[in-house]
């Protein structure tokens, strides 16, 4: 998968409550589910289902929802193949956050705050059907161990365009 491993994410503010299908979601709130607790989980810490491939807009919404502390250096690394027009930085609550990319990050986004290990989220393609997207979000938050992103996406009938 790459050099990132999910570990303690204590540098992040308290994660937002998991969104469920029975609760309405604000139009611009990110569709995000984080695994409960902060224990080492394996491959990922949760899932994120952006509404578009607009990197700047989607990352700004995600980082705002995750409440990245303003006094901690933050960086986001994304899978180049999942996005359009990747900026070098995005502005979140008045501060710049660096954006890096890798060509094959297995449909993941990695958020690093200070010296803490990255928070890893599976990125569900925006064009995914509602049923498959909700299923993939739920599985991302529930899977513990060595399940890889492609396995979760395939098990939810999510097409990624990857071989």
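-> sequence recovered:
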């Amino acid at each position: 998968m790459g050099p990132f491993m999910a570990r303690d994410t204590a540098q992040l503010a308290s994660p937002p409550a998991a969104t469920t299908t029975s609760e309405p979601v604000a139009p611009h709130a990110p569709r995000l589910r984080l695994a409960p607790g902060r224990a080492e989980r394996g491959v990922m810490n949760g899932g994120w289902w952006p509404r578009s491939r607009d990197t700047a807009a989607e990352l700004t919404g995600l980082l705002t929802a995750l409440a990245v502390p303003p006094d901690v250096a933050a960086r986001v690394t994304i899978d180049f193949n999942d996005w359009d027009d990747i900026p070098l930085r995005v502005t979140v609550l008045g501060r710049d956050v660096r954006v890096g990319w890798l060509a094959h990050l297995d449909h993941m986004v990695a958020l690093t705050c200070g010296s803490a290990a990255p928070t890893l989220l599976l990125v569900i393609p925006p064009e995914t059907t509602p049923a498959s997207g909700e299923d993939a979000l739920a599985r991302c938050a529930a899977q513990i161990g060595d399940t890889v992103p492609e396995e979760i996406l395939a098990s939810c009938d999510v097409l990624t365009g990857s071989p």
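Residues 1-26 have pLDDT under 50 and may be disordered.
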